Amino acid sequence: MAKKVTPDSQIKINMSTPEKPKKKLGTIVKVLIAIIILLFIAVAGFALGVYLNLIDMKGMTEKWKLNEYPVIGQYFPQPKTNFETVELGEKDQVETPAEANLVVSPAIYLLPCR
After folding, report:
1. What domain range is 49 assigned to?
2. pTM of the complete model
3. Domain assignment of residue 73, yes or no
């Protein structure tokens, strides 16, 4: 015959198997690990794209002027200006004062004073 279910037996069954609390911490850790892995894959993909020249860094630098930003600007080359030499005629000659032509030897400053 089948066992009779009484309220007392139902309580004993519930008491013998305690309920497990939901593990919120475990899910948070799993989500954080998944985010870190996705971020790592994105950075590695970007680095591989730059290495294989799939991403044009020179074009990006010129377009967005990345070299002008303070932190990341040090990693990009500064644009070189191409100055052409200009021949000056006698009218355009710049006169320098006579004092500017004097050259002072640095050895004078190294001699001890007496």
Report:
1. 24-79
2. 0.47
3. yes
Q: Which amino acid makes up residue 54?
A: L
Give per-residue pLDDT as tens, 59-108: 898 899 988 998 888 888 887 777 777 776 666 566 566 555 556 566 56
82-114 residues labelled b (16+ CB within 10 A) or e (exposed): eeeeeeeeeeeeeeeeeeeeeeeeeeeeeeeee
pLDDT at 42: 97
37, pLDDT greater than 90: yes
Q: Is residue 30 domain-resident?
A: yes
Number of domains into which the chain is organized = 1
Q: In sequence order, which residues have a C-beta less than 8 Å from that of residue 55 and are 6 or more positions away?
A: 46, 49
Residue type, 70: P
> How far, in Å, are 60, 63, 73 from residue 70 at the CA level?
16, 17, 5
Q: Is residue 65 part of a domain?
A: yes
In a domain, 47, yes or no: yes
